[in-house]
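User: What would this chain look like folded?
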Amino acid sequence: MLNGKIAVITGASSGIGKEIAQKLAKEGLLIYLLGRDKKKLNDTAKIVKKAGSQAKVFAFDLTNANEVRKFAHKFMQSFRVLDILIHSAGAVKLDYIENAKVKDFDAQYKINLRAPFLLTQALINPLKNTSGHVIFINSGSGLRSNANWSQYAATKHGLKALADSLRLELKDDKVKVTSIYPGRTATVMQEKVRKMENADYNPSDYIQVSDFADIVINSIKNPSKSADNIKVGKDGVEKYDF
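Assistant: Here's the prediction, encoded as structure tokens.
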């Protein structure tokens, strides 16, 4: 069903993005792997190719608008269509508002919200041409905010607004827009978060990356049946279309 389609995945060097790429690879796609670390992206590419799909690596800074547009230009020199765009790259820094540094807020805004905006905008015509599917990997923090989490949660609330607007704007073009909100997930990022919280990190306490990726893949393979909003907890999907 997905054989021969084209996908772009950000944050494909590790964590959720890498896992999604690995699972999509079984479907015979051409997958563009985006991120900063070329070595890690190449490692993902090897896994993708071994599983039966094609992979192209583009290592650049997603917070750099010129680099994003340069990638989009190169992409559209080869293709006028894009079937799947997955925004998985992200960053988090915890602190109380009274102590938080503006530079940390800016850094999170640039990767968590501004980068998805820029990349979606740059690739919007190829998405329209194929009535494609845009998936935003959001967070439980995109639905609520706790003490210490103001900066990250603000960017994720913004990402929800971006997705909600995009969905309405592209409705007539039949582009599917899905936001997925996982709770705490067993990733390197989560390990860093636990250190910031001065707490132990036990991967088994959290959503497993493989299980979460399965939910994303199911949404991609069944877009007409997929909910626009999916909330995911440790035991699987908690809520659809809220």
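The radius of gyration is 17 Å. If you want, I can go into more detail on any region.
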